[in-house]
User: Fold these one by one.
Assistant:
Number 1:
Amino acid sequence: MIPCGSFLACLVSFHLVVSQTHAAVPSPKAATDLICHTNHASECYPRIFQPTESFKTVHDDQNLPPGLHVRMNLATGVKEARFNVPESDDRARSSALTIVQDSELPRARLTRSEKIFVDRPTIDLQQPLGHWNVDVAESTLFTDSVIEVRHLGIQDVDMLLSALANLEDLSHSYQWGHTLAKDGPLIRKLYQLLSSVESSLELRSLAALVLGTAIHNNEAALAVALTHFYNDEWPDGPMEAVTLALLNEESPMVLSRMMFLLSSLCQDERQLKRFLRADGVHTLIRVLDAASAGKDAKDKVRTKVTNFVLDHLSAVEKENKISAETVSGTEWTLAQLRQKMNEQPKA
């Protein structure tokens, strides 16, 4: 066992041990890389989802291989996936009956005939990675969900949550994530939902998850999403909205998903600069304080902050990617943040 005097040191030591283990095993690292949000090894899970023929829970920050059958379990609110196993005729009929029954529930104020006359999202078959064979059912689901999110009000919570859940499922795909990011009205509406004090906890949480999923490890989606801001109509951008939301949020669950979105945004160096110029390190200290006062997901939030420092701020220090003027005054607050991360969380 490796002795360590702090949570951060333990976390770094754990990563070193995992890295050394991977080096000795001939299988690819991507197949065994783990995500750990607590100090308990039993609660770690693979970074890349390992499917079986049965549905298994998919964690927010797991990467999904292509071609899986992904669903949202409406009974538990948990996302699940499995191999795309062909179903028997009887099971297919049963599934179809379930879909028909579910479609009878009210899902939006706009009827299908009314949706024809609204501004519909554009689906570009020529994506950055080449031609895209669009699935008709997925295209219909995406289009209807985008229209619903654009036009529904905050008071339509259940219908908005259903549409957002559809978009979150689709956004794990590189192509759908890029298509979502190209839709300016949708992207701006999502940032409004996550930063509005009138949005419910569930809306804030799912809006952050949809945005983070669409741009996570998707450079083209992140680049096109940023083009909708910093203009005469929208002088501020996503970083300003996320920073404000982090300062006002009290729920550890929502804070965890907002930290996921923040980390995804900071894959763009300009967004990282904006975060630091807006006193972002103090914002992270505030996030740790808020998470410590909460009842749930405290360890997950602390680990998300720790990973953000390791992935973004530590790299900035070592590689000098950002000028001294940009981070002026942050050296002392970064030391404060590291001290805060090393403190034992409140029981």
Number 2:
Amino acid sequence: MPRLPPQLISQARNIDPLIPLLLRSCRDLHSARNELRWLREHLSPNPKASNRQKSLRRLCIERSRGKPLQYILGDQPFGNLKILCRTGVLIPRPETEAWATHFTTLIPTHPSLLLRGSDETPQALRILDLCTGTGCIALLLHSLLHRTHPSLHILGIDVSPRAIALARRNLHHNVSSNHLLHGSATEQIRFEYGDILDNENNKAVWGGEESEGWDIVVANPPYVSPKEYNRSTARSVRNWEPRVALVPPASHSDPRVITDADEEATNAGDAFYPRVVEIAETVGAKAVVMEVGGMAQAERVATLVAEGEVWGRCEVWRDWEGGADEMMEIGGEQKKEIRVKGEGQGRVVVGWR
């Protein structure tokens, strides 16, 4: 990381003596001033902070050492929700919020997700959220869909007991806090422990052959290869956020996505996707939505989806809406073209039946 220019540090000190501390992580004055304001606001309602300036300096020192702001403040906005953040559980990202929000706008355009009963009310919509983490995706989907689909059933699965405990806490926190989440969520959302890489022992968690099935499967799995983790992730991520939520276990490489020994170091981040697709097919999902980390990975995962016999259409979404659609050629011997939408990095692969 390059050193901060002395002139910038002097300018920061003239604004506020605490801003130079924040510059170590923020790297620019605008961000540092914003973070100082948020830290002050975080302390202001706290009756225990009798010596506020001393407490504020302590928080600034924590931030200067790279501790993520969300862990210091304790939460992260996510749509209209406030998601509690605790060490040991991955912090929600704005790119995840963007695609989850966008996906809810597409559900009314998919006929098989609009089945109606005899009274013309939408039938139950069942959503399986794999690698749920804080529960942010499951909770946001409920927040955005409960009015048009009053009969929702959402199940979040994670291998981390700490994540499941936090997801359950986020559910009750957002229902009780100024009704950010509709009260029906407490009955319609569940979070349960499960290891999706375990082929046999966790079928009962999301349902076996006698289950009602699931209409939609969403997943934000660990997708960073060890090589990319060491080379490209920010130091604060490596030092503070759980590696297990970012990097798949080495023992679960899959030959369907790792096709060449020379590519194994890069493609090792793809280990979860064959299982996510397999689960989506097994439970009869009409759509599968998977977050990925860049266009190269998006191409590999899209090939996995498009070469299957179940999914009639496959798309790649970039980070943000906007821009002209593009066509991307994927596949091995039998080439296929799929649509790429939006602007930014490749962020989501979607399969539709």
Number 3:
Amino acid sequence: MADYTDLAHLMADYGEAGMVRRFDALNIKNILYLQAELVHLEDELAQTEIRDNTSGDPERAELRFSVYKLKESAYAENNHQWQIYLECRKKLKEYNDAVLQYLSLRNITLSTANNVAVLRDWLERYGDISFPEGREGTAWNVKEDLLSLDPKPTSKDGLTWLLGEVLVPLYHRLWGSRNTVMLSQTFDHAQWTDYKQPVSHRQLGGIWQYNQVKLNAIADYISAVLAGLLPSLSILILSHVSEPVWKLITIFSSTLFFAMVLMVVTSASRAEIFITIAM
């Protein structure tokens, strides 16, 4: 039966399985609460400043002109302006840190649906009903809130996404899982798939890892073939079309199809696609 040590080893050795909650709602609520506290402190500080300025006491009225006198006034009776400001400073730091940390979390890539499914399956098979215990087991149930701890960059082009998130899982379900070897063995990295030992001290396996580098290479090969084939195919079709109207229709269709393929198989921006087609 697995425990947190096994789970930590799994996430460390199998990077795609590393994922934790972002706690979106809880982080935002924390920021909102800090904001509310600051609103009250800001108002309290403003009211204290007004009272000092209109008190008729020359020393208190001069506090706005000197930070040194303002700090010294903290020891005077019934003068709390500096203490309130120090509370504001402390709360501002908490607030700013919370906002910046949350913005940093928002920039971290979310785990993919397939990786979430793999981790849940591992927990069900090796954690049984005892791990994670109780409510702790629900931490990985909100897939839209799970941050990836895998530092490797993920490709954004449609072809790589199609290979990694659709075709490979489909291949694995239909055929790959019956024709590959479990993680209990270590294989040469030159093979079609790349396997690692996720939890060596417990021999807990059951996960296949397909080499993302090789998947990216396959996507590059397909892109290169399409880049060379599509223009030649358009010329070949045009050579067999004699009617001017049909030639125009063929050119229009070929250009449109080329633009759609370019959008799917590359990560080019809309401006880059427009410039390429216009040329």
Number 4:
Amino acid sequence: MHPSILLTLLSLGSILPSTVAAPSPLIAKRAMDSLISIAPKSKTCVGAPFPAECKTAAQATPFINASFQTYGITSTGEAAAIVSLIAFESGDFRYNINHSSGHPGQGTRNMQSFALNLKYAKSIPALAEGLEEAGDDMKAVVALLTSKGEYDFGSAAWFLKNQCSEKVKAGLKAGTEEGWKIYTTECVGTTVTEERKAYWTRAAKALGVPGH
């Protein structure tokens, strides 16, 4: 793990062995400030359209941290791609469900499709019973994932680990803009826009991706 991740975005406690002391208030504040620099509106949830869905940077940091640990995210380039994706897709962590018509079952912080949400949910043993009860009810399946922060914020790291090619992962680890563009178009399956790029640029800078 690149040290700049440990000193900026992550809160340290859940990524390091239990023998390591908890992060100091100063480190915790730097982590929150770094996430706010990537997702400016995450400073507060005041005025959020759906308050129950909103998470501040302070609330989001430990969940993002846990997702890196769970899914083996060890490079600043991968971390920047993940954080920029969820910040962009969730409107700075204000949404975890797509409220637009025509997108049933789309949700979690990276707003992935229902098909991916179902795969993701099936990969989590603790959700097995809930999935059986949910059946083919899309809202119920997504609710299982959005009900806990570790699942809700873990989707993007799961997606990168399990749905992206080794070529894409290598490009992200290299930390280049081209690598991020390939991830966006070939794995996420969407178009590179200036707004998306702005999120990634901020994340790359905040997380200390070499060259940024």
